[in-house]
Design goal:
2 domains; mainly alpha; about 65% helix; 10 helices; binds protoporphyrin IX containing FE
Length: about 325
């Protein structure tokens, strides 16, 4: 959920509403504090009201889970649910604090409840912050974005495409042999079908091109060697392999070195290889951003279930002691 922009008026309404409720609860709490001469606890009038409201909010927050999974629920749009989830979740913080005697509480269960509650809130805020920045970063820095689950497959395909060109165009050192397997049905002897990512009129996207395969370029043994030993492993494994090609400056140095040892006629091929490495770096970044965008929920969701369970234990115990 993105806060601000077109939906800002809706968020502003929520912010005003939860601020007013939080201020009213705080004012009531202060009034009762004065009246009692000590901090009102969870069983005071204000404490109980805040506890009931906070508990109801937590229950509502938990309902987001079935709401996301049971598509047939037609109660409001996903966006409205999420907006209510975020703002009511934040309102729960002052309410729970006032219910919990501003955290001057004893008892293991109560303390565990508070710790889990604050981790759930903190992870929710963290997830929301990530949602403000990462999708934009993905759009701007990963124009070659592909389906996350297919990153390995697309990277392998791209590696194979470039290898086909290198194999057909580079001279063989003694002991090397040409890899027939590098070609496939898409190629005939003089052309190779390759996929790549190009910027055209400001938009970058995936393109499939049929390239004329040049005759073998003399003096390119080193290019073939370095492709096989350094570039290909990187294109296949990505940054996990610890290659210098995994960073833009490392790649810039690598290709500057490479250009110094290849004939000018092979410049187009080096450019192709460089593009493929750039694309692989984008896939690596996409995978990283994707993990950041989704990992926090692995804290938020299970702990919110733990919170629900602790709350279900807390309520009857608290009423028992009342
Ligand atoms: C006690 C308080 C809270 C509870 C029990 C709770 C629980 C949940 C649950 C059960 C989900 C659904 C996860 C899923 O099905 O994938 C969820 C998602 C989420 N929560 Fe919370 N949450 C709480 C507070 C908050 C707060 C305070 C924020 C932010 C300020 C927040 C932000 C989010 C976000 C961004 C999602 C992901 C929604 C999406 O992108 O689909 N949560 N939460």
């Amino acid at each position: 959920m993105i806060i601000g922009g077109r939906t800002w008026p809706k968020d502003r309404r929520w912010i005003v509403a939860i601020t007013l409720v939080a201020l009213a609860a705080a004012a009531w709490y202060v009034a009762e504090w004065r009246e009692l001469g000590r901090l009102p606890g969870g069983s005071s009038r204000v404490g109980l009201a805040c506890g009931i409201a906070g508990g109801a909010i937590i229950l509502f927050e938990l309902l987001l889970w079935p709401r996301k999974r049971v598509r047939s629920w037609r109660l409001g749009s996903a966006q409205s649910w999420l907006r209510a989830h975020v703002w009511l979740g934040l309102l729960a913080v002052p309410l729970v604090l006032l219910h919990a005697r501003l955290l001057f509480i004893g008892g293991l269960l109560n303390q565990a409840l508070m710790v889990v509650f604050f981790i759930v809130i903190a992870s929710g805020i963290w997830g929301l912050v990530l949602q403000q920045y990462l999708p934009k970063a993905l759009l701007e820095q990963v124009p070659a974005e592909t389906i996350y689950d297919q990153i390995d497959h697309v990277a392998r395909q791209q590696c194979q495409d470039v290898w086909r060109l290198v194999d057909a165009s580079c001279a063989l050192a003694s002991g090397d042999h040409r890899h027939e397997a590098a070609g496939d049905d898409a190629d005939d002897g003089d052309h190779a079908v390759v996929t790549g990512f190009r910027a055209m009129t400001g938009i970058q996207g995936r393109v499939v091109e049929t390239l004329a395969v040049h005759a073998v370029i003399p003096g390119t043994e080193e290019l073939r060697r370095r492709f096989v030993t350094e570039v290909r492993p990187y294109l296949l494994a990505g940054r996990g392999g610890g290659s210098p090609l995994a960073t833009a400056p490392g790649a810039a140095r690598f290709f500057a070195d490479l250009r110094a040892v290849i004939p000018a006629e092979a410049a187009w091929l080096v450019e192709r290889i460089e593009q493929a490495c750039d694309c692989r770096r984008q896939f690596d970044l996409q995978a990283r951003l994707h993990r950041w965008l989704h990992l926090w929920i692995l804290v938020h969701l299970p702990l919110s279930v733990v919170l629900g369970v602790l709350l279900a234990v807390h309520i009857p115990i608290a009423f028992n002691y009342w």
